[in-house]
Design a protein that fits this description.
The protein is an alpha+beta fold and about 500 residues long. Helix content is about 35%, strand content about 20%. The chain folds into three domains: about 270 residues, no CATH class; about 140 residues, Mog1/PsbP, alpha/beta/alpha sandwich (Protein Transport Mog1p, Chain A, 3-Layer(aba) Sandwich); about 55 residues, Membrane-bound Lytic Murein Transglycosylase D, Chain A (Roll), CATH 3.10.350. Strand 13 and strand 14 form a beta hairpin.
C-alpha cells in the first residue's frame, strides 16, 4: 500500500500500521513454487545475519535452491531428534496410503514460532516448531501433513504454476520505504505468501488428507481439532494486538475457505470415516518428543519479554512504551498500542558509512517533511533523531550507532502528541548494551508437559507460565481446552524456561 494512502487513512488500525512499518526497506522476494497453507500472518524468523536488517539479501536469495530459500526465510532448520523421529514415522504412514506411495519425501522442522506447514514439489515437507508446539497428539500433526501432501498429489501446485510464472515481482528499491505489493507472490516478515489455492482446492486437500489419515490408522478427528486450535491461536494473537476475535476467526487464512466452513466439512468427513481415537500412550510419546522445544523467540533472533526486547547475539536491549505489544520478525521488530493508531518499528540498517544524522535524513518515510535533526546520546551510544510529518501521520525517527552498525527506530502515530512523543523518546533513550550477566541469563521459553495433580486447574497451571502474554488463555489454546477443568493424571503442555 502506498504511503500516501496510509497517511490519508484516518481509520487505519495499529496492527495494520505495524504491518506497513514492516515494509520499510527492502523485503525478501521469494519466487518459487511453494505449496503452502499458513495459519496466520505473524512470525518471527531469523535473518541470515542473525538480526533484523532492512536491506541485505533479497538479490542473493534468487540464486539459491527452493529449499535453501525456505530455510533462510524461516529461520533455518530446527534440530530436535525426538520430534524429527516422530515426524518421519508419521510421514511414512501417510505416504504408504497416499495415491502416490512411490513418491520420495523429506520432512524438515523450521525454526519459526509461527504455526505453519507446507511442501515443495520436490517432496520437501516443512513444519514449523510453532506448529509442533500447538499439536496435542500425532493425529493432529498428521492432519496438517496429509493436507499438504494432498496438494502435491492432486497437482494443485502445477495448476498454480502458470500464475506464479506470470508474476513479475522484483525486489523493491531500497530508497522507497513503502511499496505497493499487489502481486500474489511476496515475502513479508520473512514469511512466504503464495497465490492462494482456490476454495475448491483447499477443501479437496482437506478431504483427501482426512481419508489418508483414516487409512493410515490415525484418528481423523485430529483434523477438525487442529483446525480449531489454529483458529483459536490466531484469534488469541489478534486479540492481543487489539483486533476482535470474531474478525480474526473469520479472516483466518483469509485467502482460503473460512475456518468454520473447513472445520464443519472435515468434521462431517471424520464422522463418515469413523476411525480409532488416538491411544493415550501415542499421545504421551508425542508430548515427550516435543518436550523442551523452543516456544516463541529463539535467543539468536532476539527475545521479547513483555515490552522489553533483548538481543543476546547483538548485545542490545531497549524498552518499548508501557502497554505496547511487540512482535519480532526477520526484517524488524514491530510493536503496536492495541486499539490505537500508534506503532513502532525497530531494526538495523545498511547505512553504508552514514552517520546517525545522515541516516535519519535518508528518506525512510516518503511523503513527509523532516524537522530539525537533533543529536542524541543513549548510554554512551551516539545517535540522532528527527520528527517527520505527513498529512495526517507523524513519525519520530531515530538512529543509534553501535559497533559500526546503525539501529533505527520508526515511531508512527495519528496524531503524535507531545506526551506520546515523550514516551517515544524515553524508549529511544532506553537503548543500551547488554551486560555479560544479561547475555548469560537470556534463555528461551520451552514447551514442557506436566501431569495434572489433585486440585490443579487450568488457572493454577497457567500461572507457572511466567512472562507469556495472557497465560490462562494461552494454556487453554495450547491444550485444546474449552473449559478450565482438568483430568486428574493427564499430561498438559506448559510454557516455561
Amino acid at each position: 500500500m502506498p504511503i500516501e494512502l496510509l497517511i490519508n487513512s484516518s481509520a487505519l488500525p495499529a496492527r495494520h500500521l505495524a504491518r506497513m512499518l514492516l515494509r520499510f526497506g527492502v523485503m525478501t522476494v521469494l519466487s518459487f513454487s511453494l505449496v503452502a497453507c499458513s495459519s496466520n500472518q505473524t512470525s518471527r524468523e531469523i535473518s541470515p545475519t542473525g538480526a533484523p536488517w532492512s536491506t541485505g539479501y533479497a538479490s542473493g536469495m534468487l540464486s539459491l535452491t527452493e529449499r535453501d530459500r525456505v530455510l533462510i526465510a524461516f529461520g533455518g532448520e530446527y534440530s530436535s531428534s525426538t520430534a524429527r523421529s516422530q515426524l518421519d514415522a508419521i510421514l511414512a504412514r501417510l505416504v504408504a496410503v497416499s495415491d502416490e506411495p512411490g513418491q520420495s519425501y523429506r520432512v524438515t522442522i523450521l525454526n519459526s514460532p509461527s504455526p505453519n506447514a507446507f511442501a515443495l514439489q520436490s517432496g520437501d515437507v516443512f513444519v514449523t516448531r510453532g506448529l509442533l508446539a500447538l499439536a496435542d497428539d500425532p493425529s493432529e500433526i498428521a492432519a496438517v501433513m496429509a493436507h499438504e501432501l494432498a496438494h502435491i498429489t492432486a497437482r494443485h501446485a502445477s495448476q498454480r504454476s502458470e500464475l506464479a510464472q506470470r508474476t513479475n515481482l522484483e525486489a523493491p528499491d531500497a530508497t522507497k520505504p513503502v511499496q505497493t505489493l499487489t502481486s500474489s507472490l511476496v515475502a513479508s516478515k520473512g514469511e512466504v505468501a503464495l497465490a492462494s489455492f482456490s476454495r475448491v482446492q483447499e477443501l479437496e486437500a482437506d478431504m483427501i488428507g482426512v481419508r489418508w489419515m483414516a487409512k493410515a490408522g490415525f484418528d481423523p478427528y485430529g483434523a477438525p481439532r487442529i483446525l480449531t486450535m489454529l483458529s483459536r491461536d490466531a484469534s488469541l494473537r489478534a486479540s492481543i494486538f487489539g483486533e476482535s476475535k470474531h474478525k480474526a476467526a473469520m479472516n483466518f487464512l483469509a485467502s482460503h475457505p473460512s475456518t468454520p466452513e473447513r472445520i464443519a466439512k472435515v468434521l462431517a468427513s471424520s464422522k463418515d470415516l469413523g476411525g480409532i481415537p488416538t491411544d493415550e500412550n501415542e499421545r504421551i510419546r508425542w508430548l515427550n518428543a516435543i518436550d523442551g522445544i523452543i516456544y516463541g523467540d529463539d535467543p539468536a533472533q532476539g527475545l521479547i519479554r513483555g515490552r522489553h526486547f533483548i538481543h543476546p547475539k547483538l548485545g542490545i536491549k531497549f524498552a518499548a512504551p508501557e502497554t505496547f505489544v511487540l512482535d519480532n520478525s526477520s526484517s524488524a521488530l514491530v510493536g503496536v498500542l492495541p486499539g490505537k493508531p500508534v506503532a513502532l518499528r525497530f531494526d538495523r540498517i545498511d547505512a553504508r558509512g552514514q552517520t546517525p544524522e545522515q541516516a535519519v535524513q535518508s528518506g525512510w518515510v516518503d511523503g513527509t517533511v523532516l524537522g530539525e535533526v537533533e543529536s542524541i546520546n543513549s548510554h554512551g551510544l551516539k545517535g540522532a533523531t528527527v520528527l517527520a510529518k505527513g498529512q495526517d501521520w507523524q513519525f519520530r525517527l531515530a538512529a543509534l550507532a553501535k559497533d559500526g552498525v546503525i539501529y533505527r527506530f520508526i515511531f508512527a502515530a495519528q496524531p503524535l502528541t507531545a506526551d506520546l512523543d515523550g514516551l517515544f523518546r524515553q524508549a529511544i533513550g532506553s537503548f543500551d548494551s547488554l551486560t555479560g550477566t544479561e547475555i548469560e541469563q537470556a534463555r528461551p521459553l520451552r514447551i514442557r508437559h506436566v501431569i495434572a495433580q489433585q486440585g490443579e486447574t487450568a488457572e493454577t497451571l497457567s500461572k507457572r507460565m511466567g512472562t507469556i502474554e495472557r497465560p490462562y488463555e494461552r494454556f487453554l489454546v495450547l491444550n485444546g481446552l474449552d473449559r478450565p477443568a482438568l483430568q486428574l493424571g493427564r499430561s498438559y503442555k506448559l510454557i516455561a524456561e
